[in-house]
Amino acid sequence: MTTKKRIIIIGAGFAGLRLAQDLENTDYDVLLIDRNNYHQFQPLMYQVATARLEPASISFPLRKVFQHSKNVRIRIAEVQKVETEQQIVQTSIGAFEYDHLVIAFGCTTNYFGNPSIEKFAFPMKSVPEAIQLRNQILQTFEDTLIASADDLPALLNFVVVGGGPTGVELAGALAEMKKNILPKDYPDKDFSKLTIYLLEGSPAILGPMSPDSQKMSRIYLEQLGVIVKTDTIVSQYDGTNVQLQSGAIIPSKNVIWAAGIIGNTLNGIPESTITRGNRYVVNRKSNIIGLNNIYALGDVAYMETPKYPKGHPQVASVAIEQAKILANNFKNLLKGRALIDYEYHDKGSMATIGKRKAVVDLPKFSFQGRLAWLTWMFIHLMLILSVKNKLSIFVNWMFSYFNNDSTLRVLLKPAVKK
Length: 418
Fold this sequence. Notes:
- Helix content is 32%, strand content 24%.
- The strands form 8 sheets. Strands 5-2-1-9-21 form a 5-stranded parallel sheet, with helices on one face. The protein has a 4-stranded parallel sheet with strand order 13-12-11-17. A 3-stranded antiparallel sheet has the order 6-7-8, with no helix packed on it.
- The longest helix is centred in the middle third of the chain and has 21 residues, at 165-185.
- It is built from 11 helices and 25 strands.
- Strand 19 (274-275) and strand 20 (279-282) form a beta hairpin.
- Its EC number is 1.6.5.9.
């Protein structure tokens, strides 16, 4: 039995992983619980879906990360509920006691209560979902070779719903596949009628970014042939036809849903602590309101501060900074020092649309084009955990840059027992 204070971290995303790393080899007993045995780098998930990167390039085994840790343990499990009075977390592999509990399991796809969209559209919030989407995209190209004239329109229309960074980057990647790869892979098929739609419900794509970045990203997408429709809301989707709120219909068997996220919730945490978007209301020390030893970090946390009276953006940099501050506060607790309040220092935002096409917003200015594209690549490479993965991604990017191609278009389907 350990006499150390026990911290349980639920979720190995940006916040949970960073917190565990910062508490490594301290006087805490840390238990990191996740349903997967790896950390996934979500900003590059779309490149897995479009066969530019292998899944292993953006996935990092948790046990590898903590091989030299003396106090961090890993458990792969589904968390079922928390018993706050007994300070116990119930999971699919048993119960675990805690002194401090940190909820950092992030968000899931928000279908806005529309069951038809949830049933038929393709999400892209995890590595398995990205692989599923890659299979769908590659299989669609094969299906067009034998499809009837009546079935072709639905196969040749790709509809990306959501004009945030994920939607914009995915639409750009699909457009580059159409331009650079399909003519070489399928010389016997005319893909000129393949159409990529990007649908956004608000007046502009990349809503949180500057007007210049919004304008240029739209120009870049339209130069690549993407049809961008703003102020456009999807009302229904039956697997073959996308029905818009305006009444218009787009035939498509390939609808990718990147229109929003909603927080995961945990049984046992009072509903009174949850605000819009299923986010837990926390104070500036990341404590869930009314629960002194339970914390929330990252996308699932809602914290109001003087600079951000409506909460912080749900981005990786916020999650990482919150984890750093909480780790310091845990260390301060042991030493009897004063705790630190969190405030987000905006480092900017960015999105890439295609080769030599990107937009970057920094706190005081923004820029677009080739320099923005190089900046985007450099920042994302620096955020990758391992040197091996950095090299793998860099080599793939350089190969794609000089050849306008990739070698990763492999259909990975599960085996079926006979």
